[in-house]
Design goal:
heterodimer, A: mainly alpha, B: mainly alpha, flat, membrane (chain B), transmembrane (chain B), Inner membrane protein YgaZ (chain B), transmembrane helix (chain B), cell membrane (chain B)
């Protein structure tokens, strides 16, 4: 079954990354360059997922103030910048999205 | 001060409490989104029980909904989780004396939240003989909470079958936006995010979501290059001021 393969694959990908250094504890150190490169990984991957989701929610580029995904995403980014609090960002972003969809339609 | 495994376990749970509260909406949203993304209820709970990696699970849903294949999802999971290697690298000097079953358990439970909760106990406090019990006290409540919230989310998704039209998928975007912004503290990081985000729009039509990996890799390469250039310039300036 496909889902079993998917979950097994994700389990292996997640667990191996978390365990490999514990398994050989004390015998390896990262170079400073590798550590710095790894620091870029989460935001670079996340933005590559977010941008198409908010700027092309229906499959093609929609850069317009009537695009509620884009505008609410912008509002969420501002809130995240000011408050640095994930929960507030999510709540304000979701509420703005709901209001924008209701208001624009 | 006398310390016992039980005492350490409770202290670990207490240190993790705020992070557990923060994880509740994500677990519920994950459960509600699972079915609308094409994952069965069984698949959703199994993913929370066996994979236990919040951001990877959300990304997997996004990729599933977009029709990506299993190899791309697994590869993306691997890349997204590479940061856990940094966490484990910093803990490595303190786990060498533990048995392998303990290390397996700790590795499985190594989330952003638990790392945040235990790093002080492991890296700052001196007596580490029972610190693994503190770690367990962080991991077990996180794990139970994540599974329970997934279950609640699946139930809510079942009660409201058209929940897919409510725009809850936007929760994923907004969660990721909230996770990206705190990283934007330097010019190389800004450059990495702008390059990756812009490329993701132009490579969106590539098959199997390959554009995602390509865009992220280019963003990382640009960020690392700029960081390297900045450091070279700083060295050069420091050298000049000494002359």
């Amino acid at each position: 079954m496909n889902e079993v393969v998917l979950i097994l694959g994700m389990f292996l990908a997640t667990f191996s990354v978390r365990y490999v250094l514990f398994a050989i504890a004390g015998k390896v150190t990262f170079s400073e360059g590798v550590i710095k490169a790894l620091g870029f990984v989460p935001p670079a991957v996340l933005i590559a997922i977010v941008m198409p989701a908010i700027a092309m929610p229906q499959g093609s580029l929609w850069l317009d103030w009537r695009n509620p995904w884009l505008i609410a995403g912008g509002i969420a980014a501002i809130v995240a910048w000011v408050r640095k609090d994930l929960l507030t960002t999510i709540v304000v972003g979701m509420v703005s999205f709901a209001l924008l969809r209701w208001w624009i339609n | 001060m006398s310390s016992s495994p039980r005492h350490e376990f409770l202290a670990g749970a207490q240190a993790t409490l705020p992070l557990i509260v923060g994880a509740i909406p994500f677990g519920i949203i994950f459960g509600t989104l699972a079915q609308t993304s094409g994952l069965s209820a069984f698949g959703a709970i199994a993913m929370s029980l066996f994979v236990f990696a919040g951001s990877s699970q959300f990304i997997a849903l996004g990729l599933l909904a977009a029709g990506a294949g299993i190899p791309i999802i697994v590869l993306t999971t691997l890349i997204v989780n590479l940061r856990h290697m940094l966490y484990s690298a910093s803990l490595v000097p303190h786990v060498g004396h533990l048995s392998h079953p303990w290390r397996v358990l700790m590795a499985f439970g190594l989330t952003d939240e638990t790392y945040a909760a235990v790093s002080n106990r492991f890296l700052v406090q001196k007596d580490k003989r029972l610190a693994h019990w503190f770690y367990l006290g962080s991991f077990i409540p996180m794990y139970l909470n994540w599974s329970l919230c997934t279950l609640i989310g699946i139930t809510l998704g079942g009660v409201f079958p058209n929940i897919g039209n409510w725009g809850l998928d936007f929760a994923m975007s907004v969660t990721f936006i909230g996770m990206i912004i705190p990283y934007l503290t330097s010019r190389p990081m800004w450059a990495a995010v702008i390059v990756s985000g812009a490329l993701a729009l132009t490579t969106y039509s590539m098959p199997h979501k390959l554009g995602l990996i390509l865009s992220a890799s280019c963003g990382i390469a640009v960020g690392v290059s700029l960081l390297w250039l900045e450091q070279r310039r700083q060295y050069a300036q420091r050298g000049a001021s000494h002359e």
